[in-house]
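Hi,

Apologies if this is the wrong queue. I'm a grad student, and the batch job for Probable Pyridoxal 5'-phosphate synthase subunit Pdx2 from Elaeis guineensis var. tenera produced an output file that my downstream script rejects. I'm not sure whether the problem is my script or the file. Here is the sequence I used:
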Amino acid sequence: MAVGVLALQGSFKEHIAALRRIGVKGVEIRKPEQLNNVDYLIIPGGESTTMAKLADYHNLFNALQEFVSTGKPVWGTCAGLIFLANKAVGQKSGGQKLIGGLDCVVHRNFFGSQLQSFETQLAVPKLAEKEGGPDSFRGVFIRAPAILEAGPDVEVLADCPVPSDNARTTIPAAEGKKEKVIVAVRQGNLLGTAFHPELTSDSRWHSLFLKMGKEAGERNLMSADESHLEDCQEKMPHDLPIFE
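Support response: The file is valid. Your script probably expects a header line. Output copied below for reference.
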């Protein structure tokens, strides 16, 4: 099993190391044609604007959007979450390109500057239900985004209390004060986390991501079986002769 990791900028080496710890090969992706050789893709954390410019320079955007549309599992962490969102706010002047697919509104720099990075224990009962282990996970937030809104088909996997001492001067007053924000979601083949699981020794998020590919394969197989059965039923004559 080979998992592609977008290797333009950011924590791609940390993701590859995390995959290696659970016996999975990570492949660095820098060119569109390399996506043809992987069935999973991780878009790592980093500086989202820089990553977008590099992806544009390497003509990767169309290939990334096509990869998402195939139904293959894609996981975005931090900047990668911003990439996957249908809409992002709080961007730098001029904005940036998004891959899209995840029905969310993401605030690019919700938790503030690099100096306001933090770690906290997150309640993750759904992760524990699927992967075992404790009901909490150590979330590492580095100049992190947050999900302000999630669509009806988006499953919320974790939220995070907003630190009371967080000086988020970039948040529009119209949004109001939030006590909690969403920081981990899943929608079909897409997984998004505002924090960095690759910087911890807990491999459950990587394990969950890999199982998403198996689930997609099983769904495709069931759909193919149902389609084949319908074709057979259509070809069978409905008024067969009765022999006595």
